[in-house]
Write the C-alpha cells for this entry.
Amino acid sequence: MTEEKYFIGVDLGGTNIKAVAMNREGKIFHQQNIPTESEKGPLPVIDKLVLLIESVRRKKDVTRRSLGAIGVAVAGAVDMKQGICRFLTNFPTKWKGIPLASRIKERTGCTSFLINDVRAITLAEKTFGAGRKVKNLVCIALGTGIGGGIVIDGKLHFGSKGFAGEIGHQTISMDGPKCGCGNYGCFEALASGSNIASQAIRFIKQGRSTMIRDLVEGDLNRITPEVVAKAARQGDEVAREIWEKEACYVGIGIANLVVSLDPEMVIIGGGIAKAADLLFEGIKKELSRRVYVDPDVSRLKIVKSEFGDIAGAVGAATWAMMNVF
Amino acid sequence: MTEEKYFIGVDLGGTNIKAVAMNREGKIFHQQNIPTESEKGPLPVIDKLVLLIESVRRKKDVTRRSLGAIGVAVAGAVDMKQGICRFLTNFPTKWKGIPLASRIKERTGCTSFLINDVRAITLAEKTFGAGRKVKNLVCIALGTGIGGGIVIDGKLHFGSKGFAGEIGHQTISMDGPKCGCGNYGCFEALASGSNIASQAIRFIKQGRSTMIRDLVEGDLNRITPEVVAKAARQGDEVAREIWEKEACYVGIGIANLVVSLDPEMVIIGGGIAKAADLLFEGIKKELSRRVYVDPDVSRLKIVKSEFGDIAGAVGAATWAMMNVF
C-alpha cells in the first residue's frame, strides 16, 4: 500500500503568513499563523516562512504521511513556471524578482509551487469549497485590493501570460478616481476596503453625524471596514450609505463579468465578504439594473467563500497537489 | 471512398442574408447575398432564407458533394439546443420565440443549427481565420451594436446559459448615457457605430466646421461611420476627433477584457473594423494607459477579422460542421 501524501499550503500575506496541511481529499489536518513583518525585508520573511513550514511538518498527525509538495500563494504577480515573485503588492519593493520556489526547495528539501493568492482562493473554492459542483464560476476577493479568479469548463483560467483574473483593474468609471495601479476609475479604486474607511473619514470631516466616530473614540486612523460594518448593523445612516454604495460598485464589477462570461456562480471572498449581510441584497439589485442580457439574473448564485480566511492557504496546497499529480 | 460533405452557413442580418458553402477545411465554394426585408415579418424572411439555401445548394460545384448540415447565425439571443430565436436585435418584435431550426429542417430536409452572429464570427476566425493558431483570444464585432466571443484553451466559451460574450453591455462609465439594453454607460452605448454618426450630427448642430456636412450634401440622415471615416482620412478635424474618441472607448472595452482574461490576441470585426487605420493606434495608446497589470500590453496582438463581411456566414457553416462531427 502506498503511503498517503499530504501537502502544505502557505498564504504569504502582507500582515500574516498562514499555513495548512491537507490531504488529497481536501481534509485539513492542521493550520497555523504567524505575523509576516514584511518591513524586515525578504530574507527574514523567508526565514519565518520556512520555520512555519517546518513547524507544520513536525506536527504528529502530519508526519505519519509524507510531504508531497508545498504551495505558496502570494499577493501579487508570480512567474509560475520559474517560481519567481515578480512583484508583491503591499510588500517593500525589495521583493521584486525573488526566486521564492528555489529558496524554499533549498531550505526544506521539498518542491514548491507559487500561485497568485486570489487564483489560489478560486482553486480552493472550485476544488473543495462553494464551487465544487460548478463548471463555470467567477471568484472575487474583496479586500484592501480586489482580485479574482475565473473558472471555465471546470478549469482555472490563467491566461496567456498568467495574469487572467485581475478584474479589480477593469474600468467601470472611465473618468473616475485614480487607482493604485495608475489607471483611472478601476473597480478596485472605487470598491476596495480602503475606500470604505476613506469614505467614512470624508463624511465625518464633512460634519455628518455618525457613530463611526464614537466607535473609534475619535481616532479616524482606526476606522476599518469592520468598524463601518458594525455601525451599519446598528442602523447608523452614514455607515449604511457607505455599504449601499459599496454594494453598487461591487454589483457593477460583477455585472461586467456576468455579461462577458455568463458564469453559473459568483463566489465572494476576502475580508469584505464578512459584511455579506450588508452587501448581497444591494449587489443583486445592481445586477438587475445592469444585466439586461440575462432576464433571470436575479437568480444568479452569489455565495460567500466557504474557506474564508484560510482559502488562500488551502488553494496553495491544492495547487501543489495539482502540480505533482 | 466516402463522399466529401459540405456545409451551408447563413448569416441572417437586419439588412442582408448572406450564405456560403464550405467544406471541412474551410474552403469556400460559393457565396451569395440577398436583402433581408425584415419589415415583411418572419414568414417572408424564412421563405427568402430557404430560397437562398436552395440556390446555394443547386450550384454545380456544390452538388457534387452532399450537404452535411446548415448553420444559421442570427443577431440576437438564441436557444442553441432547441434551435429557437429567443430575440433578434434590429428585427420586428414578431421574431420572438421563432423555432427557426425546425422550420428550416421542414423546408430543406436538412438539419440546421443556430448560433449568435458574433459567436459565429469568433468561431470562423478561431477555426480558419486570424486566430487559427491561437488558444486564448477575444473577438469583438463593432457595428450598429457591439458583441464579442471569447475563446479559452482553444474552445469558444458559451457560458452557463449561452450568452457569454455580450461584452458590449459591460459598464465602462457607470453614470454614462443610456444604452439600448436599458443599462447606463455600456461599452456599446458609447462606442457603437450609430454613436459615430450621432456625434457627427451633434458637432454639426453645434456649428463646428466639417466636410462631413458636404459629403452628405447637407442631409444629416445620410451620415454613416463610413462617411465620417472618409472625412477623417482627408484630414477633417471634427471627424478625426470623433475617431479618436471612438478608439479611446474601444480601448477601454478591450482593456477590461485584457485584465480579466489575459488573451493572446484580440480580433476586431464588424463594419467599424473597416476603419482600422483610424482606430488601432488609439486603441493601443488607451491600452497602455489602462492596463498596468501587463507591462508589455503594447505588444498585444490586435488584428482585423480575416473574413470581414462573410465572417458570420463562415462561422455558421463552421458551427454546423462542429455539430455533425
User: Anything to note?
Assistant: Chain A is about 40% helix and 20% strand. The longest helix of chain A spans residues 237-261. Chain A touches chain B through 47 residues (CB under 8 Å). The radius of gyration of chain A is 20 Å.
